[in-house]
Hints:
Layout: H1 3-44, H2 47-52, E1 54-62, E2 65-68, H3 70-77, E3 89-90, E4 94-97, E5 103-111, E6 117-127, E7 133-142, H4 146-153
Parallel strand pairs: 1-7
Antiparallel strand pairs: 1-2, 3-5, 4-5, 5-6, 6-7
Amino acid sequence: xxxxxxxxxxxxxxxxxxxxxxxxxxxxxxxxxxxxxxxxxxxxxxxxxxxxxxxxxxxxxxxxxxxxxxxxxxxxxxxxxxxxxxxxxxxxxxxxxxxxxxxxxxxxxxxxxxxxxxxxxxxxxxxxxxxxxxxxxxxxxxxxxxxxxxxxxxx
Length: 155
């Protein structure tokens, strides 16, 4: 291979890598925006909008129990939308998109109505054929009481 061909290949590779990083940055913003819009449905008390963020084959976990499918999840979460005030809120801290641009993970705090962190959510998003990001997996965990965990770990 000639130096000119090698240089051309190297430039093309660098350009592709730069484009991939730019695409991943744009996709990460799309997922963050989708997660924020998803969370906003709770604050707005808009169950129908919440449901539109769910993939048809989504799985949400409640402890060890899994709720499967958009309709079942929508029904299970309906009570959270009753009443004038949301029982909790959430917001993404981290968002990562796989290189293929088809799946993403978002995670962040779950807050009670007073703003106290009560847990952490983890969601997996899938880019649907129409380009819309929808939640396919969601699982939360309780907040760690680090002072209690540290003191119980001492000998």
